[in-house]
## 1
Amino acid sequence: MKILPNVDAVEKIVYSDQISYNGRFADRLLRGFADPYVKRKQTETV
């Protein structure tokens, strides 16, 4: 039984899910990386 008609349909679904996943986590910071000292050190090394 085929649920999805072709590969393009699968790619569209995966792309849509990935965009929503990235949108949810785009503004989150890992513990430690929000620390002002760590931010300053990161900008100095770049």
Note: The longest helix spans residues 7-25.
## 2
Amino acid sequence: MIIRSVKLNNYRNFSKKKVDFCDSVNIIFGFNGQGKTNILEALSVACLSKSFRTRNDGDLLQFGKESFQIVIDVVLDNEIEKEIKVDYSVINHKNIEIDHTKIKSILEIFGTFPIVILSPEDDIITNGPPQERRNFINFVLSQLDREYLKNYQDFDRTIKQRNKILQDAKENRYKFSEKIDPWNEKLYQLSKTITEKRKEFLKALQEVAYPIHQELTVYSEKSSFNYKPSFQQGWQKKDLFFKYLEEHKNEEILKGSSLIGPHRDEIRILLDGYDIRKYGSRGQHRTFLLALKIAVYKLILQKRRETPVFLLDDVYSEIDDVREQAFNDYFMALKQVFITTHEKNIKLDLPEKFDKEIKYIYIDNNNLKTTEEVLFQNEKQF
């Protein structure tokens, strides 16, 4: 997929702007606070229906405005052109159209226009609590497998309904079993399905991410995932699962919360057998995240057969020389890349045969100025 342009209206710090992109490397530069990340965020909102910075669409409104609009033009790998339009208002909330047809569910868009994002916010994947790694898995798996997204939406509704019954039971247990049994059945089926899909995904991700991480660390570290599902292996037999629920019924009622299910899973990231969250340095976290996102890019391309767009938000300057050289080797395989930075002259030690166009987009006080530069073999860079 290629993103040709974006139009912004009352979005963040942009009143009305249109930006055209090149098909390869787009470098968005300027001083901090000018709106570089806002442009990448707009691409995320259009392609994925959500921001990578906030869960509240109202945060995207320009100050004092009650509505915003994002319109992007894309070309898919099969050369079919699409227009995605996102309208948001305080009254009507969010509406997404593809070629002027309103979508009824995010199932229609999620994974169709794939993008991979690496931003400072991603630190929480390796540094944060288990919920953040679960969110990461849900996000990527939902792009790869729409059935997974549907399953998890059903699971989320099941947990909310089941928790409501548990909370009500604190005051009154009348017909408790009759109320909760149907939701226990759904909990079992969905937990089993989601756990299996997560296992398969992490195995595939490990196979792709491991050699990439090896290259980025010059083969000095070994990375792996340690998946501890809440849904235990022995619970493939339904009677054991329901026995557990019965034994912990009083505890669940007391807490008013479901104690087992994929929402309780833990995924640990290990470097040489040690938990990166506890023992990893900042450089190790950044390097693993870089390998992780390249692996996600490859998996999406393999599974969806649509080339993702790669967004690098203000992270390029933190890559050291050794890892930068290894990362730049992957540039040859990337189709379209967006990079934000506070300076134009970032180091791009690209292979000599790299002859793709590089477009510079300069942001100064919300004004956009663009220049285009083409790098050819043996030409001095910058």
Note: Residues 1-114+306-382 form a domain with the Rossmann fold fold (CATH 3.40.50.300).
## 3
Amino acid sequence: MPGRPDYRPAGATITLTAGSTAFTTTGAALQMAAVNTGDTIWVNGLFLIIGTITGQNAGTLADPCPAGAAGTHPLVIRYQPDGSRLSAFVQDLTTKLASGNVDAFAGLTLAADTLPYGTGAGQMGLTALTAAARALLNLQGTAAVNKLPFLDTSGSAALADLTPFARTLLDDANAAAMLGTLGAMPQTRTIPNGNYNQAIESGLYTGAGAGAANAPPGSVLPYGPLLVQRSTFAITQIVTFAYAAGGAAVEMAMRGSNDSGATWSPWRMLVETAGTNGNGRYVRFQDGSQLCRHTITMTPASLVAAGAIFRDVTSMPWWTFPAAFAEAPSVRIAPRSTIYWAGAGQISATATTETVIYCYTNFSASITVDLFAFGRWQ
């Protein structure tokens, strides 16, 4: 087969630089003329082998340009004979096939929803190609900085923004770390060592319950959630507890510290609270005062003469207050009768353990008695 004639486009030139592999041409249309690797450029009696063609008027040499070929010259290109080109191709293909990759691929038994992959040099295996994986391969959009793939349908994927700040959350190991990154409060904390004085970091704490140290006053408040708000050295603690049917009764107390919890103000009730139990009803006021009331029915059955009157020290039951006082309160016992009167002694912060019924005659009848106690709960 006769070789192709040399390529000599009229007026075309080539510019070469000594020691460089890059060259440029003018008016050459190298790609349209099918100039390829292995073809040669003839300049000043020298043949320079072409390494690559990078454009219609640009390419590189297989070796750096010698000084004798440097400069701008008329363009003359000699095509490599087709037989030589085919031989080179076959030799290159044979070298590549010798790697074992084709044999490894041919040895696979393909099945539905599988994908070949390399397991080593000249070795291949199969892995599952699930519908989700195929959806990701169908990713739409343009890859760019701060983008994240996501499935937008059952069979396709798209790109969403993934900001640098979002990545600071994604590298957190747990919810507590994420909340720290956000500067937010954890959902709930535990009061350290059951001591309210140690709950000094901002957050919502579960109540420590009965017996907690430095707890808010009242029988139920230590069970309520504790809200702590802190700003540098200033700390505010607020405890709220709703109880009775439908939360009809609410207690709320507050205190503060201005030295990071070293010292605290007294607890202060924020709302008037009231409650009822088997010992009567109580009301606690914001100013620290407390009123307790109870009504009983009894019969003076052991009246004993005491001078011109009679007294009974055994029939009247002792009264345990429905809510404790901070100190012994004032107690009044008022029979609903015109012939009986009463008094109380042995008064403590929690009860009166001595009650006496008086009557000006030795007369025993069922009577209703109102009991009152007034004092301070804090």
Note: The two ends are 116 Å apart (CA to CA).
## 4
Amino acid sequence: MLRIYLERLASTIDNRVFSEDPTSRSLYRLIQQAMALISRHIDKIGYVLIPILAFALRLYNYAIIPSPIATTDEYAFAWCGWSLIHGQKPTSWSLLPAYTRWQPVEWRGISFRIVSPWFDHPPLFCLVVGVAATIGGAPTMFDCALEFMRIPSILFGTLSTVLVYSLGSRLYNKGIGMVSAVLYATVPVIVITNRLAVAENMLTVLLLLAIYATLQYIEDNETKYLIIILISAPSAILAKLPGVSVTIIVSIILFAYNYRKESLYVILSGILAILGYLLYGLLLDWNLFVAVNTIQSERFTLHYKFFFDILTLGSSVTYTWIDGWIIWSWFALLYASTKDKKQILSIGAGMYIITIILSAGFFAYYWYIFPLFPFFCLACGKYINDLIKHPNIIFFLLFFVTAWLFIFLGIYSEIFHFIRIRTIYVSIARLILSGLFGVYVLHFVLRGRRTRAVCSTVTVLLFSVFILVNIFVVIYAHEVLPLLDELSRKIFTYYELR
């Protein structure tokens, strides 16, 4: 299937293992042929097929999942962008008390406080969404349609998939890049949230682009990569203020590799972006601009629920989405950070986490951690790669319990019941999973070449089925999310009452 898997199988399960009968030897030759085929076309898979899959999954039912009222922040960005494009002051809704003058509007059964000028966020992403809504033919800002508002985010998500493959190939190898890109393309919570018209989806692309260009500049020293950095880093700030983390991350990496002059250029570009945003406020209404941003900066009040939110993606697509993949990703990120000689994952993920901790306040909206998803996928790709190369019962147990048992013992089991997969089949699947874990136990006891080969095969099988389940969940999301919403609401309420 994937080149990295086949490489491991071909190197672990060699001719000496398959020398006992013709059937085994034929299987070995088939593995070699498949590996050679994928090796010849791996870039086509990484740069073409996987992004096409990512785009198709994000486009499927994108206007209804997430729910049109999953977050009204989508309309906040669109209305601001539409008003700017049509020559008006930035106008949108806000609940911040800094706005002393506002107009009450009832729209689609929801009450909004419409304010102008609107300073909740910088204008760059607003303009992108506003252009999409205008192309969609919205005659007024209240006619902005999700069918067009969400298109930029879907494109950003697809481009992010390409950049995940590029970064994985650059940091590790093309096999890990492919595994990471497949994860980013198919994990349900990434696919579904990549549809939302929120600034973090744009911020994710700019972060990945800046880091990739930085690594390329360090290797090739070509001016075009420095130009990309100097465009993407300040643009991230103008998309949303936590985008200042992109400037910090890139400048740290450049400084660490003794590109101190270039690091200074990046810092200066970030300062210019901030000055540009200040000028934007000065030209429109300086006193209100200062009042709004002062209130935004006073949100820092840490609470245990904040950590629950960022660890489990709380307050998610419907109400709360508790996903075993998220939990496994945190383990994988810690693991991969210890194996990352260049410390790119550590610097990138670490600095962004610090940024949202300092800016999130009482709780974390689920879109705050969107820019962490690529780092999660890169870490999981490294984790799976190493698990195949060196089967380890503890690492397999973490993957098994979080990402896999969650499917048949957790909320995903509701999905199977919903589509009328009989309980007996789910029980059989649980028994099979237990048996597969037993293979690792056997290898832990015997530590033989053949048991290691079987463990590698089991890991390949489980990961492959995991990807298929991801795709399956995305396809059925419009039918099963209400079930997950109800179950998650109970979980969320439990934590709220504690």
Note: Residues 44 and 50 are 9 Å apart (CA to CA).
